Amino acid sequence: MKNKTITKTTYFYAIGLSYKKADAEIRGHFSLDDTAKTNLLKQAQNSDIESLIVTSTCNRTEIYGFAEHPFQLIKLLCDNTKGTVEEFQKVAYIYKGKDAIYHMFRVGSGLDSQILGDFEIISQLKASARLSKKSSLLNAFLERLINAVIQASKRIKTETDISSGATSVSFASVQYIMKNVENVSNKNILLFGTGKIGRNTCENLVKHTKNEHITLINRTKTKAEEVAGKFNLIVKDHANLQDEINLADILIVATGAQNPTVSKDLIQSEKPLLILDLSIPKNVHENVTELKHVTRIHIDDLSTITDETLEKRKAQIPLAEAIINDVETEFNNWLETRKFAPTIKALKHKLIDFKNAELETQRKKLTGFNEEQAELISNNIIQKITNHFAHHLKDNDISTIESLELIKKVFQLEELQEHV
């Protein structure tokens, strides 16, 4: 909300799609890599969008921002992905104003995650906010909201047991392996892709499987070496991918590419091979299922896993929602204050104009006029008057809108209006 004349009314929206209605293929159509995110932000700047952040994960793609109409944000998304408006309309959600605010709180707190209590999304929201701020697309409202969501997320993580046990997709993949593969500690495991999900999966593999036959491959070898160094694992060149796949009993793919990186052409061995695809869009080609000895599991399959830990987490939802309500109430109170802040500011300027005019008159009339004392006294009076009006407008028993209109009418004020 910039300090300039606003000629168009904008509202805060959250638009996007998630695992709830969009399958992996559709989510892949709307997935945004780093280049696409940068291009989207540049387009937003050129379209006079005031403020927005964009997130794209394996579970969801969302834009939170200010627009006259949500289609402006939908267009930004479709212009920078493979997705179409028609596809979006079939599976999407659009929230406005306080509903959009509440939605961000639920997402950031892990209550809307594919695996309940998965807090990985909060770091992605932080990164998205930093990127928007760097592009001058993070206004006071959105920055304050992000900070409030971070606060709620921290409280939920420390004050409830909703994240008891491991709750991420990376842990779910390891849990699946341990439940479905015998003698997992003796199997050859190949992890292809060492981005965030790959790194977390690697850590869970080492921690839970006690396996010493884990090999890492990444297109950028140095990144794989950084991860391997922490756990004393083997790193192979990307050129050795096919050879390593044929040695593997378990292949975990987390490359985050926009097109499949593994297909049946790479699989020459005929021994049983379990492939877990943790990527959106899917990075393992459908044709691997034509091989009878290959079992392919996708991230969406992992989210259906239920256990006692998950049931315990569900019991914590009311506590988490109470914390959200607490922090959200604080944010909304701040938001209410912002509604009358421009009027109070305009009132103060009007009173200063009165003061300056009166001091000028008294300066001419009175000999030995003590201007310094008069300035001090009048400024104190102005501050007390504006404070009095501000306290009045904060009173829940009065109509803020009616009071604002009366103040503006009495003092003939002109000020900027901001919309949420």
TrEMBL record:
Q: In which pathway does it act?
A: Porphyrin-containing compound metabolism; protoporphyrin-IX biosynthesis; 5-aminolevulinate from L-glutamyl-tRNA(Glu): step 1/2
Supply the PROSITE patterns for this chain: GLUTR
Key words of the record: NADP, Oxidoreductase, Porphyrin biosynthesis
Q: How does it assemble?
A: Homodimer.
What does the record's miscellaneous section state?
During catalysis, the active site Cys acts as a nucleophile attacking the alpha-carbonyl group of tRNA-bound glutamate with the formation of a thioester intermediate between enzyme and glutamate, and the concomitant release of tRNA(Glu). The thioester intermediate is finally reduced by direct hydride transfer from NADPH, to form the product GSA.
Q: Which NCBIfam families match?
A: hemA (TIGR01035)
Instruction: State the PANTHER family in the record.
Output: GLUTAMYL-TRNA REDUCTASE
Q: What is this protein called?
A: Glutamyl-tRNA reductase
